[in-house]
UniProtKB/TrEMBL annotation:
<dbReference type="GO" id="GO:0006285">
    <property type="term" value="P:base-excision repair, AP site formation"/>
</dbReference>
<dbReference type="GO" id="GO:0006307">
    <property type="term" value="P:DNA alkylation repair"/>
</dbReference>
<feature type="domain" description="HhH-GPD">
    <location>
        <begin position="129"/>
        <end position="289"/>
    </location>
</feature>
<dbReference type="Pfam" id="PF00730">
    <property type="entry name" value="HhH-GPD"/>
</dbReference>
<protein>
    <recommendedName>
        <fullName>DNA-3-methyladenine glycosylase II</fullName>
        <ecNumber>3.2.2.21</ecNumber>
    </recommendedName>
</protein>
<dbReference type="InterPro" id="IPR051912">
    <property type="entry name" value="Alkylbase_DNA_Glycosylase/TA"/>
</dbReference>
<dbReference type="InterPro" id="IPR003265">
    <property type="entry name" value="HhH-GPD_domain"/>
</dbReference>
<dbReference type="GO" id="GO:0043916">
    <property type="term" value="F:DNA-7-methylguanine glycosylase activity"/>
</dbReference>
<dbReference type="InterPro" id="IPR011257">
    <property type="entry name" value="DNA_glycosylase"/>
</dbReference>
<keyword id="KW-0234">DNA repair</keyword>
<comment type="similarity">
    <text>Belongs to the alkylbase DNA glycosidase AlkA family.</text>
</comment>
<dbReference type="GO" id="GO:0032993">
    <property type="term" value="C:protein-DNA complex"/>
</dbReference>
<dbReference type="GO" id="GO:0008725">
    <property type="term" value="F:DNA-3-methyladenine glycosylase activity"/>
</dbReference>
<dbReference type="GO" id="GO:0005737">
    <property type="term" value="C:cytoplasm"/>
</dbReference>
<dbReference type="GO" id="GO:0032131">
    <property type="term" value="F:alkylated DNA binding"/>
</dbReference>
<keyword id="KW-0227">DNA damage</keyword>
Amino acid sequence: MWEKDLIGKHTYDYYYLMKRWKMDELNVVDMDEHLIKLPVVLGDGSRHIVLLQFSGPITAPAVRVASADALRSEEIISWVKNWLQWDRDLAEVAAHFVESDLEQLFFAHAGTPIVKDTDLYYCLMKTIIHQQLNLKFAYTLTNRFVEAYGTYEEGVWFYPSPDRIASLSYEDLRSMQFSQRKAEYVIDTSRLIAEEMLDLGLLSTESDETIAAELTKIRGLGSWSAQNWMLSGLGREDLLPAADIGIQKALKFYEDLPAKPTPASIYERGGRWAPYRSYAAVTLWRSIET
């Protein structure tokens, strides 16, 4: 087991990261020890269990990274930095919102990072599964999905592969309380990936506009799905899912409005939040989380 300490240069609220990661009961998080245990799959498909242990105040954070394969340590460190967005100066983001309509929100939730999923394919599947469902049942379905078709290693769940899901029948997912359409969307999209008609790694290098155009060609994937994949999978910084109910509720609560604002009005005012609209979105979501 090798270890390496990363010293943060900027404010980073790792408590929020842990709390957010713990929302999924399949994730391994020890709030008392400030520890997260992650399933990491590198580019060659090799699997690694990576431990992150945070320490220090959020204004001067540190994280100890540990894993088993010393020969892959540099790749894993690079992966961890990318996943955490460790070198991103969140104070620079917050400064953009000074004297804006969200200034007090960013002051109250300083150092809020974009919390990403660890796997691009699973992030897309989760986006499909979660759409148009309440959060509790959405997590129930994704948990069933992972427990049925993923792999459990040393206390950590590795997510299902596209090939595994592509081999299923729609009825396999219907038996887990997936709707017929949701089962079709999950399996048909997985088949596109398994048959190399959709390369998520290659797609991730494209612009936001190109990614949205490509994903929305796929049955079952709309603008909301594309934006959420780019935000939660890639950590893109300038996305605003204005149709998201959570963002609408957060703005209604924050500004004490008589009704939720419309997507059109959110998108219009969001122009002033660019180029950091994703941070506006995650901070709004955070403001109504319990």
